[in-house]
């Protein structure tokens, strides 16, 4: 057991010396500095949301929350939506300018989309910006199922419409 401890200690000492020789600034960094540097290098997180199921021919909203998890502001940020064949973007450019995202803040962007063909589709949104002169980016996606129109009956159909509205709005 003592022999293994000696070998591990020697290996650790050799690795430490190599790090100090080849990466002198890294030797002064703590583990928290390394974690903070990783978040600062690529602080963007993208959360994409849309209804899980939509009727064919109906317009729905795709929303992306672009979150800056770093301490520094991200400038010249922009987001872009990527739609597969079968989904159509309405009245808008696929690229939207976001501007500045302060540290530890988020901005929302959205697009109006219509399902033209029945099927399941992955919708992706990417965002990018500048952080201290470097380009940072992130990507997120969501799944949407486009299906047949639901039959609307007489009488209680308004209740179903109300339920659909609440389900879409509150995502349950």
Question: Class by helix and strand content?
Answer: alpha+beta
Termini distance?
57 Å
- Helix tally equals 3
Oligomer: single chain
What's the topology here?
Elements lengths: L1 H21 L8 H11 L2 E6 L3 E3 L3 E10 L5 E9 L4 E3 L5 E7 L4 E10 L3 E13 L2 E14 L9 H14 L2
Parallel strand pairs: 2-9
Antiparallel strand pairs: 1-3, 3-7, 4-6, 4-8, 5-7, 8-9
Notes on the protein architecture:
With 172 residues, this protein is an alpha+beta fold. It has helices at 2-22, 31-41, 157-170, and strands at residues 44-49, 53-55, 59-68, 74-82, 87-89, 95-101, 106-115, 119-131, 134-147. A hairpin with a 2-residue loop joins strand 8 (119-131) and strand 9 (134-147). The model is unreliable at 36-40 (pLDDT under 50).
Features:
single chain, about 170 residues, alpha+beta, five-stranded mixed β-sheet, four-stranded antiparallel β-sheet, elongated
Structure, briefly:
This protein is of the alpha+beta class.
